[in-house]
Amino acid sequence: MRSKFSLNIIGPIICFALLTFGIIFCTAAFLSIGISPLYALLVDMLPGAVLAWLICGEFRTKMIVVDFGYDSMTIKRYGGLGAPRVFYYNQLDGFSTSILDSINMAYEYLYFIKSDKKIGKISEYYHSNYAEMKTEIEGKLKDLGYIEFRYWDEIKESFS
Q: 143 versus 155: which is more confidently predicted?
């Protein structure tokens, strides 16, 4: 079984493209009219921080492709473009779940745990076949219970 992305991945991809274009355009425009490079850098810091969050937080940790095999699973980060990492089920501690509240809905996230660390996550938000994947995982890994969602933990995981 392989994970499938939902249409919700379009938002971060559009934001990534717009921010990248915006940073390049603003920097070029500032420099071409003689504004200080330091000022251009300061103006680009906020969009740059959002861009870093998108790359490290969303693309690297949440927009992952997971292939489930008989005795192992393969995780590819960055929307499936990253290098494959193989994890054997017998080497994992199990999985935990968490609920992330949004404006209109709540989405479940499932974390793969190895040596008390989260090594990957799938979610109802980014994966259209989340329910089938969760059923597959429940048959192969131990349920370690519920983890309370904390934004601070999410930020730390994004950049670690």
A: 143
- How confident is the model over 47-63, as pLDDT tens digits? 887 777 667 667 777 78
Instruction: Give the integer Cα–Cα distance in Å for 158 and 160.
Output: 6
Please give the residue range of the domain that contains residue 133.
1-160
Three-state secondary-structure class, residue 65: strand
Domain count, the chain: 1
Q: How far apart are CA 113 and CA 59, in angstroms?
A: 19
| DSSP code string of 81-127 | TSPPEEEEGGGS-EEEEEEEE-SS-EEEEEEEEETTEEEEEEETTTB
- How far, in Å, CA of 58 to CA of 29, rounded? 29
The model's pTM: 0.79
Number of CB atoms found within 10 A of residue 139's CB:
9
Nearest CA among 33, 24, 58, 84 for reference residue 159: 58
3-class state of residue 151 by DSSP: helix
Would you state the structure tokens that stand for residue 24, as one six-digit string? Answer: 């390049």
